[in-house]
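A quick aside before the break. I want you to see a complete sequence-to-structure record at least once, exactly as it would be stored in a machine-readable document. Don't worry about memorizing anything.
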Amino acid sequence: MKKDILFLCQFFYPEYNSSATLPFDTAKYLAEHGFSVGALCGYPKEYNNDCNVPMKEIKDGVDIQRIKYIQLKRGSKIGRLINYFSFTFKAMLHIGKLKNYKSVIVYSNPPILPLVAVMANVLFKTKIVFVSYDVYPEVAYASKTLNPGSLISKVMNKLNHQLFKRVAKVISLTDEMKDFLLENRKELTEDKVVTIPNWAHEKIIVPSKEAYDRFGYNENQFIVSYFGNMGTCQDMETLMEAVEKLRNDENIKFLFVGHGNKVDSIREKIRKDQLKNIQLLDFLTGKDFEQAVAISSCCVVSLEKGLKGTCAPSKYYSYLQGGKPILGIVEEGSYLEEEITKEKLGYVTYNQNSDLLVKHIKHMSENKSECLEIGKRVTQVYMNNYDIEICLNKYVRIIELV
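That is the input. The structure line, written in tokens, reads:
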């Protein structure tokens, strides 16, 4: 008798990045609702504090099997490619495990991993549910990390053709991404694509003196925070220009928390220009992250131009859950611009317009009562649209129908 669903992903429990916590949340929820659930995932390294993680375990009803693979630093393109191919190759060696499941949920990261699901569909008729966190190879084209005529690009296009003609369901994170997929993946029909956004699950805490002291701020300062990846897809340049232009304003401070291939250049700019109004910290988890969000006066979500429809920043949902006014550095016409503007969640700046960003930050810092009202709307939007129960119930309905 086949089990119901296998999660196939590079990151999983006990790793603490969103690429691990979101699949594990989903797996747990499905197990709680009576499905037999397994996971085939990578052995944790970079996003894990536990040195004694077993190769196999059952956690919250999820039967987890982990794979050891080459894990180089993700800051370089070569390192990421080696990691992707190494994990996918090792997962292929375990393809027999997929024979025991009716369906597989596979994620777009790493982008070649769906090859394993396609092979399982060919060999065992395993149904495929594909979760599109990013749309490859277009997101790589837009971020200029991949050339359209390259060998990897050709491989990705052939893989996509095989994947999308076989999927039972595709999960897009936004309606904008759904429209992009339907327009650019001719194998898909509208009934196969379902929008399920990401969610957040940190505890919401009231900012305390301990939290301000922890990060070296005080409650009278206006703290502009950025959390998450600072990589190729994020417009950090516009944000850093605003930091520089506000360097002499003692009331406004910046807090950057996360990782990515732009971190080193940001750190160097802070050192070279002697910017005293910004802190740059590594990835935070648990109470540390919750405290950092709590003391933030507003939070920044940023995407480079040309990425519309191809990706969705996961930390946006943490900002909403935390009730924080949003500053968006986005492309004109994007879903982020539409939602932030329509719901009055904060203010929007287009790419390369740091002057407008500075204007928005100054306005918010001088109108804190307005920020409190924005925060109430932000919380309501999260509860109405992105609460974890709302999103996970959609996954239950999909698995019931597959």
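Two observations worth writing down. The mean pLDDT is 95. The radius of gyration is 21 Å. We'll return to this after the break.
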